[in-house]
Amino acid sequence: MSPHLALAIGELCKAAEDDVDVVTHLFDRYPRSAKDLDWIPDLALTGSWVVVSIDRFKKQHNAEREALRKGGHLVFVLEKEWSGRPFWEKAEHLIGWWPQIMKAARLQSSGMLSVPFSRRTGAKFKQLSL
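and the corresponding structure tokens:
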């Protein structure tokens, strides 16, 4: 997710008076050079987080997924179709999905769900192995 989009969604959550503590981009907390196996366990020191990413966390023989599981994080993975889309199209769809992401985060405290790009009728999250 773009840092600008994270900031925009954070501001929209404030305006909607949603019960979201903070929406922040990874690079606001960690340097761009931070490795997944460094920031994931460090983030867990401050509690469990909801992570939205296009990364499927499958590098290093799934060690990243193990770190996410141990950290108790809930991860929303944007499906491959998101990667080739223009910024404004991604923004439109992510903002469209955001209420469902927040609802799922209230119901499920950890795990991994995939987020389809399309918001057509019947589109829903899929549970992934963590």
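(Above: one complete record from the training split.) The helical segments are 3-15, 26-29, 36-44, 59-71, 87-107.
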